[in-house]
Predict the structure.
Amino acid sequence: MIVPTRDLFAHAYGKYALGAYNINNLEQAMGLFQGNMASRAPFIIQISKGARGYTNKLMLEAIIRTADQIWPDALFAVHLD
């Protein structure tokens, strides 16, 4: 489930660190979701300007929205670097 970063920070404050990871393609997104689901950890997906240029922002959006459907229990936010 995509949530605002503010919500993730509020929940984590004083309890645990939040991982923030850059992705550029499908394989990285799949690894990120699989790993964080296995550890039951919320996370932040970071998308840099370079990634948006390399992959195309529409492709990245589709990857993230599809991953959200495949792993509906994943709790994450999206941040544009």
In short: Residues 1-52 form one domain. The radius of gyration is 12 Å. The helical segments are 5-12, 26-39, 49-55, 57-70.
